[in-house]
Amino acid sequence: MSDPNKEARRVVEHMMQHDRFSKWLGIEVLDIKAGESCIRMKVREEMVNGFGIAHGGVAFSLADSAFAFACNNRNQLSVALDTSINFTREVRVGDTLTATAKEEHNGRSTGLYTIRIVNQDEKLVAQFKGLCYRTDKKVI
Length: 140
What we know:
27% of the residues lie in helices and 39% in strands. It is an alpha+beta fold and 140 residues long. The longest helix has 17 residues, at 56-72.
């Protein structure tokens, strides 16, 4: 019997090799399990808006990558169908953000995921929810 977590890590490694945006963000993959992911990144100066705080798209993009890694890591190509995010705390240059994606539902054609983003002090900065559509294609 094959190890689903080993397969999940292999799929995410493949995804990261081809994901220029996640690389640009500076994302580091911390942990991958079937239907789950945990990643982190450090907020850089070019990621802030005119108010001196991180642009909301930074946290959204981190969560979106965690979502993609979690919903695709069973090697079934899945795409976002609906996403939403709630911001709970400001993010500043130098903050280290960790996004943890958990699978809430793994259906034949859809999957539902929640992603918590915390800062280096373990304070919640955003909560993301993503619904994916599962295609009949393989990631690798």
